[in-house]
Write a structure and sequence with these properties.
Chain lengths: ~400, ~210
């Protein structure tokens, strides 16, 4: 036969403590709600900013250059990256990998022949193939081959199509551009000169440049420039999150310039995260204050019912049993508070997604599983803390 | 089941108390089935001794062991188990919940480890003349009635030892005898020992051992 708490309950006097009990319950509800909403907003921001950079295999790729200032103008070596810079970046936890854009170190020009009757000075660059978003199988070159496959930034074609009509050229599509052979002429020291046929094999959205296979650049730099490149004007960083505040702070500190478009959200994210962290912290403080108030209430109940509790212990009631039953009385109230806070957080999330964000894909109308987890963690933590406190007080009464 | 007393002396008594007492500073063994009468004048530490045995006070030197285990090492849970299953008490000052009814006061003890069904409460109350008081709050009862509630409460559980501290101090001889009969009946049913501390000898208690405190 189980021992009934019903007959024991009237022996616990709460008296005037009822007010502080309700205050602590209300405070706890508000605190938990603030905490849950902050965590949900944190998750929302992370999800919103995920889609703003060119991602490959879940990584972001961003280009960095050294800032050219009035002081560093004319001092080329100060504006270029060295092997040391690369090693430094690579050692950071927020950087997955770094690859330099190796540029041609000699003069070359490009002419379009009869279909594209124009010529321009040009530079070619190359990067490790794993940093490319599109890598056609024919993007390779070996010594002795006259045809160079090149990958062109989509932006270049767009710019050409903007100014082409003004110069009387016809605008061209991607497919047509890929079929047009162009001539690249390389000029080296001592008047050496060599023509190559270049063919656009792909367009890239990620790298703002004209790319040739690395084998060609290395060979050509040696042949026409006389040496291999050891300094690089641009680096590409592979990172899990281009908006990671730690990465952006590091780049700022080093004076590296980064594509503002791709990291613009990172600055906003930093501020938003700070605001939301503050809000979350405030929620946590409110929860802790509510816990304290509740512990005062429990102390008051124990103090007021001291004689009754001492007699119950003298009659053979175990402090553990009494502690469990008193805390057990709070379980329905706690469940109600947690569920109400969760429901309110869910309604706010639905409103945020549906009305504020216009059902933006990538965001969910339903609160994150992490938020639900935190809610229940608060529930069990509060029960455990109350039980420990009560057990200690009852042991002291013994 | 046995209670061993090893040279126990309250910390507020000096050593000279040991000379005249048959309990303080002595080695004693109480076993199940014994009826022990302790005669103690006022101020000799009668209530203290009962409270020491029940584990409610610890201000003594020496040792008290229950079934070979020193009760000084008991946890609150151990005491709870012991008071629920092995040891019952009738307090001199009754110690009832004043705002609860007579029935509730007894039921609070009974439900912890029921030795009797709930109907037994009414039966015992009728027998001791407080049947009509079962629904009354204890604070409205006289001392004599409260003492009878305290007696019935102590008999609701299983026990090996029943500690009684002046259990009839507010009862007339007639009611005291009725209560004594009930106590003896219940103790024999459990083959339990009674340790009965009183100011003077009570003729209707068939003690097997008499000790002067």
């Amino acid at each position: 036969m189980s021992v009934s708490f019903k007959i024991i309950k009237p022996l616990l006097q709460s008296g005037s403590g009822r007010l502080s009990r309700w205050f602590s319950f209300i405070g706890m509800g508000i605190g938990v709600l603030l905490l849950l909403c902050s965590i949900q907003m944190f998750i929302n921001i992370r999800q919103l900013l995920k889609g703003n950079t060119a991602r490959k295999n879940g990584f972001d790729y961003i280009a960095v250059t050294k800032k050219v200032t009035n002081e560093s103008m004319g001092q080329t070596e100060k504006n270029l990256f060295t092997g040391f810079d690369i090693a430094d970046l690579r050692s950071k936890s927020f950087v997955e990998d770094v690859a330099p854009l190796v540029a041609t170190d000699f003069k070359l020009d490009l002419s379009g022949g009869t279909i594209l009757p124009f010529s321009t000075d040009l530079f070619l660059e190359s990067i490790r193939p794993d940093f490319l978003d599109t890598l056609p199988p024919d993007f390779e070159w070996h010594e002795g081959k006259n045809e160079i496959p090149i990958i062109v930034s989509s932006d270049f074609l767009e710019v050409f199509n903007v100014f082409a009509p003004a110069y009387g050229y016809s605008q061209i599509s991607r497919e047509t551009a890929s079929g047009i052979p162009v001539t690249i002429t390389c000029y080296g020291a001592g008047g050496i000169k060599e023509d190559f046929t270049a063919k656009i094999v792909a367009f890239t959205d990620r790298i703002n440049s004209t790319l040739a296979p690395l084998s060609f650049i290395e060979w050509a730099n040696l042949k026409f420039g006389g040496q291999q490149a050891t300094h690089y004007s641009r680096l590409y960083i592979k990172t899990k999150d281009a908006n990671d505040p730690a990465l952006l702070n590091f780049l700022d500190q080093k004076g590296f310039e980064v594509n503002k478009e791709k990291t613009r959200f990172g600055r906003v994210k930093q501020i938003m995260q700070a605001v939301i962290s503050g809000l979350g912290l405030f929620g946590l403080v409110v929860v802790i204050l509510a816990f304290l108030l509740l512990s005062f209430y429990l102390r008051l109940v124990i103090a007021k019912s001291k004689e009754n509790l001492q007699l119950l212990l003298a009659l053979g009631y175990a402090p553990k049993w009494l502690g469990q039953r008193i805390v057990g009385q709070m379980v329905p109230v706690y469940i109600f508070i947690i569920l109400l806070a969760l429901l309110t957080a869910q309604m706010l999330q639905y409103f945020f997604h549906h009305t504020v964000m216009n059902d933006q894909p990538g965001l969910s109308s339903i609160v994150s599983i992490n938020v639900i987890g935190v809610a229940w963690a608060v529930f069990f933590l509060s029960l455990f803390a109350n039980y420990r406190l009560l057990k200690k007080m009852l042991y002291d009464l013994h | 089941m046995q209670l061993e007393i090893h040279s126990v002396l309250p910390s507020y008594f000096d050593e000279s108390k040991k000379k005249l007492s048959e309990i303080w500073g002595k080695e004693l063994l109480f076993t199940k089935g014994e009826f022990i009468k302790i005669v103690a004048p006022s101020g000799s530490g009668k209530t203290s001794f009962i409270h020491f045995l029940y584990g409610m006070r610890k201000d003594y030197s020496g040792a008290i062991s229950f079934n070979g285990k020193n009760i000084a090492g008991y946890t609150p849970q151990d005491f709870a188990d012991c008071r629920k299953n092995n040891m019952s008490i009738i307090f001199q000052d009754m110690r009832l919940f004043p705002k609860q009814t007579v029935f509730e006061n007894i039921e609070i003890k009974r439900q912890l480890h029921p030795f009797h069904p709930a109907e037994k409460i009414s039966e015992m109350a009728e027998r001791l003349g407080i049947g009509e008081k079962l629904r009354s709050k204890c604070e409205t009862c006289s001392y004599g009635e409260q003492q009878r509630v305290s007696i019935i409460r102590s008999l609701m559980q299983p026990f090996d030892f029943l500690l009684m501290d002046e259990p009839f101090s507010h009862l007339d001889d007639n009611n005291a005898q009725k209560a004594m009969e009930l106590i003896l009946e219940e103790s024999r049913r459990r083959e339990a020992a009674i340790i009965f501390a009183n100011l003077e000898r009570v003729d209707f208690f068939p003690f097997t051992r008499l000790l002067h405190l």
